[in-house]
């Protein structure tokens, strides 16, 4: 049923797109793991970025560039997207798909571990980002989140994917390092007065999961943020 509903929504509201299909095809041919966002969630990311008029986006975890294309197409005129990818092979595939989509001038891939690239971004004083999409190793998402808050501004939106993990997030005794990383992240955000946050559960072609959303509060609202 979940797959059928996703297919119905894609057919009616998301549609097919040559550049996005090419990105998926290139990832499959290169043997990249099929863990990219679903078409419905890709469109949701696009709409969120458009709705807030995002002109500066930071993505952590490029993979084959599928979500990067969705986000890059939502950039406000003259905007810029920086995406961080640890695996050179993934970045190579993504670079080709991003250029094929006509986004080469506004999207920059930085190759290397995110925990090396993020301090470099801060040192460059590239300016505050409007939207962050974190879709990388779950063991370090708390650290990625902290850098997002540092590189953001009041009103910036932080989205973290794959935080429900088919309900495994409830298991406080889990030995799965990804589950433990997600739980550490959620408990950290729960104590953080700088943001207002929630988690949305999702079902569909990617089975049962969910994503976290956090908005950086301004100074006057920070004390009331949940």
Strand order of the main beta sheet, please?
3-2-1-4-5-7-6
Total number of strands: 7
| Percent in strands | 15-25%
Span of the ends, CA to CA: 35 Å
Kindly identify the CATH topology of one domain. Rossmann fold
Q: Please tally the helical runs, counting DSSP H or I stretches of 4 or more residues.
A: 9
Secondary-structure arrangement, i.e. CATH architecture of one domain: 3-Layer(aba) Sandwich
User: Residue ranges: pLDDT <50 for 5 or more in a row?
Assistant: 220-226
| Largest sheet entry | 7 strands, mixed
Overall form: globular
Give, in order, the helices and strands: HHHEHEHEHEHEHEEH
Residue-averaged pLDDT, rounded? 93
CATH superfamily of one domain: Vaccinia Virus protein VP39
Question: What this model shows, in words?
Answer:
43% of the residues lie in helices and 18% in strands. It has 226 residues and is of the alpha/beta class. 39% of the residues are buried. The chain has helices at residues 2-14, 18-29, 39-51, 66-72, 88-100, 114-124, 141-151, 177-190, 219-222; strands at 56-60, 80-85, 107-111, 131-134, 157-161, 195-202, 209-216. It has a domain at 2-149 and 172-179: Vaccinia Virus protein VP39 (Rossmann fold).
């Amino acid at each position: 049923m979940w797959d059928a509903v996703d297919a119905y929504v894609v057919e009616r509201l998301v549609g097919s797109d040559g550049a996005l299909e090419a990105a998926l095809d290139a990832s499959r041919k290169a043997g990249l793991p099929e863990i990219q966002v679903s078409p419905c969630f890709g469109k949701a990311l696009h709409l969120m970025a458009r709705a807030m008029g995002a002109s500066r986006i930071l993505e952590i975890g490029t993979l084959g560039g599928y979500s990067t294309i969705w986000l890059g197409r939502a950039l406000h005129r003259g905007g810029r997207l920086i995406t961080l990818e640890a695996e050179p092979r993934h970045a190579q595939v993504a670079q080709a798909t991003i250029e094929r989509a006509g986004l080469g001038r506004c999207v920059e891939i930085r190759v290397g571990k995110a925990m090396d690239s993020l301090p470099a971004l801060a040192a460059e004083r590239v300016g505050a980002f409007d939207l962050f999409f974190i879709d990388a190793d779950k063991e370090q998402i708390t650290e990625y989140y902290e850098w997002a808050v540092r590189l953001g501004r009041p009103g910036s939106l932080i989205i973290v994917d794959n935080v429900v993990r088919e309900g495994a997030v409830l298991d406080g005794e889990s030995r799965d390092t990804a589950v433990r990383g997600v739980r550490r992240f959620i408990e950290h955000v729960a104590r953080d007065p700088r943001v207002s946050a929630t988690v949305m559960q999702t079902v569909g072609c990617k089975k049962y999961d969910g994503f976290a959303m956090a908005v950086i509060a301004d100074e006057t609202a920070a004390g009331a943020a949940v």
